[in-house]
Amino acid sequence: MKKAVLALAAVSSLGLAACSVNKVEDNSYTGEILFSAYEGNNLKLTIRKNNCNGLDGQIDTFTFTQPYDSDLVVGTCVRVSQHEQGVVVDNISRSKSRIWASRSGQ
């Protein structure tokens, strides 16, 4: 039994190490929304590039076209990705299942 547990622990630690080593560099970062407002049809966001863990960090301001999204509120931790199609902002503060439950009142 001890050998099986030890083997399982070794395999899982190797898997975690492989995931962290093979992290792909993309054009994204995490930050906190400091300000959010509509300007015409565009949503203007001010985001602090601080990995969502403190008051220090570079502040980025940009305007992009975004339909109303109740998840992009002040204080939210977001991932900002920059692609050929433009800027994509995703809420990473909570899981998708919790987002649905909070909207349904359950």
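(the above was protein one; protein two follows)
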Amino acid sequence: MRSPHRIATRPSDAPLDDGTVHDHRTVHDDRTNDTAELPATAYSNPYDELGALAPNPLEEFLHEEKDEPAADAPWTPPNHRRGSRRRTRFAGLPLAAKAVVAVLVATAFLALGDRWALLYAEHEAADKLKDQMKLSAAPEVDIEGFPFLTQVFDKRVDKVKVTVPDVAADRISLAKVSATATDVRIDGDGPTSFKGAHIGEMNGEVLLSFDDLNRELGASQVTFTGKGHDQVLARGTLPVAGHDLKVRADARIQRNGDRGISTDIGGMRLQLGDLATYRPGTREKEGLHLSRSSADRVSKETSKAKALLSVPAIVQRLGVPDSVVRGALESDAKLNELTGAPKFVNDVMGLNLIDVAMGHPELLKKLGLDPALLDGLAKLTRPVLADRLTLAFQLPKLPGEGTMALQDVTVEKEGIRVRIAGSGIGIGR
């Protein structure tokens, strides 16, 4: 390792050259002050020179302590002028600035108190609505206008919005009832003493969601969709006597008084695969009728045709003379002549099997029908099926005074929307 000090290679008393400055001293003249004074003794070993330059390690411990300054020096008070200046900055502000700061602080506290009073009043109003209307959940109450305290002292609120989710209405639930009340007079002595309110005018709407209908009336796996502005389509399956039958119906929505919605259900029919179609009712085209494919099979299969012609009530309903029937039962040629006519297929499709075949289970089995299924269909009358598919409901009555009525009904993609209006409604009285 190269030493950082210059090492003398000649005695210190050796004469220098005749004033001649070597080249390295000329080039590095700026380093002459960086080197320590060379010792007088020349060292043959550079490490000896380094050892001589190093301080004695015992000097740190073996040295005399210098006397400390006197401890009884006179006491002088600390200088707090900097902190005082900090504390007096606000005092040094102009009077106008102080007034602005005070106004801002007071306004912040007033706004905070106003919002607290507003939240308290909204909470109290929601609880009273929940108790009086027997709701499962508290409604959302939003009192508009600022500041609120001035309205409380005036005992009049300009506008209040109320949203009630999941309102029970007969056998179904209303997804949402939202209303906006105006000209609301408050009954109470202050912000924390809310006793009730009187609503001058109210307008709102009711939504009967198709999703809720599908869930609540979905025991039959029937789904509801809108068609037009006043029609709802019901499509799905209906379990009857252990069989899942395809069901379809059309419901027309209309008002029923001031608080009710009624449905006129038509086009109801149950499809028994490709065998038959059941339409509840007593008219000519209603009842259980074979499909065209089933009637074609009866006309082409001898066993089914003879089983059908063996029932006197069916023969009478078909209008076939007894002599022709006896000949058809005795001769396959005459049977083919009778059943091969186009009129025979149409006449078979016109038979109401609920009327003429209920007492003949063997015939039903020949036709591929379950007698228990027909028994279940016979009990599924038009009123019973219509009741299972109805969407009618009544709005709940108001808990206090006032009137509320339906204005119009429209069918939308998401459900049935009803507009409502009311006046003179009292709450909490």
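Reviewer note on protein two: Confidence is low (pLDDT under 50) at residues 5-36.
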